[in-house]
Hints:
4 strands
Amino acid sequence: MSFLNRVFIKQILMRKVIYSLIPIIIISTYYFGLRAIVLMSVTTVFAIITEFLFEKRLNKKVSEAVIVTSILFTLTLPVSTPFWVAIVGIIFGVVFAKEVFGGFGRNIFNPALVGRTFLYVCFPEYLTIQWNSPSINFPGGFSTYLTPSIDTVTRSTPLITFAQTGELVPLKNLFWGNISGSLGETSAILIILAGIYLIYTKAADWRLMVSPILGFMSLNTIIYFSNVTSIPNPIWSLLSGSIIFISVFFATEPITAPKTTEGKWIYGTLIGCITLLIRIYGIFVAGGMFAVLIMNTFAPILDEGIKFYKGSRSRKVIA
């Protein structure tokens, strides 16, 4: 324990996030095999080493936030992602989205999503076409290293299946998570429960969590009932893909999100809307990561704009 205290900065908030992720880690292992734990361990080790090498020069400790970053990064990946690809991604995310800005508390972009986006663009075959079947019978993945791979596109993730065939995976499968996909994005119920825990323990702002879902659902409903394009019903759209996972764990990151109340609502709502627009009209199925990174860019501007607007109104009232 003394060694850990010498190396890591104690961050209670980050530990709460880790606690909320434990059920998701367990279910991802159950569905896809013990390789999920191995992959997560590898990325965590390299994330810690990377941050340690940067912080050591400044006589600073490693933040526990880097553990959260590596866990979330791994949960955005398919279980069969090669180790070297995951290592490249987490190092890129920690270095270019965190350390180059000065380390913990100074980053503009979410490091886990930067690493994931880098892999999505540079090594798309590992993140878009290599999927594994979920286990459905106990002990499931606890008794195997890796579940069988899926060879055909039409039997891959719910969103890809819908795009290719128009077929909708049953809602109960989306709810419980026995579907193909990235490790942490399958079980909607566990992600929702994690969100409730984070709100209850004041580890996350409920506005940042609720607003992306409201934005996503509102725009989905408008487009769906307008028959503008082929789009699933709002409930199915919400439970499929990564929007709930993004809303609970990425939109709520306090460092990269706005600080003003109004800014939080605008920020989250636009994340939801952009996610849906990229999903429908873009060439990428996974629009959530791009939506968060886009809004990370505008978070400081939102706060400054709102403060300027409020200041202008106050001056007019006084005058």
